[in-house]
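Chain A, query sequence.
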Amino acid sequence: MTRGLEGVRLREAEPADWEAIAALQVASWRFAYRGILTDAYLDDELEAERTALWRRRFAGSVDPNQITVLAEGADSRPGAEPLAFCCILAGSDPRWGSLVDNLHVHPDALRLRLGRRVFREAARLLVGGAHEATPLHLTVLEENERAKAAYERWQGRLVEHPTKRQPDGRVYQLRRYAWDGPAALIARLDGLG
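Chain A, predicted structure.
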């Protein structure tokens, strides 16, 4: 793992990155959700499910409203696991706007502030496009303290507490955080120094 920010580059994901993205999401979920989601799901089902999801998302022509940004070591070889990624589904919800569907940092890179960097870059790619005035939102499991702290630090507004059945089959309490739009989010993140 790269240990400093100087060796990190950001780029848009390409179709060939789907396996590396799936592997990072699996590592992230196993770290963040151990003790929250069931062990049976995390150990036996997660990898196949995430692999199928990312293969499907990058198969054929990629949805132009899917923006996926990777953070990787400057010396990363093609297909190497990224350090972090953010995937936004632009304009996907008529009420809440663009969904920040995934924001994951490899467990070994959590202290590098890469989540904030990939989130900012994905939002920047919305500026000037059809969804630049569209709000952004995400949901997080109530028990995910690390993620909730980040979204609150990034000045996301807590707008509701929905419940949702998760892939392990159980229903969980969530928090939905929202931002007014990409430019407002970028300004908030830049204001953090």
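The chain has five helices and eight strands. The chain has a mean pLDDT of 92.
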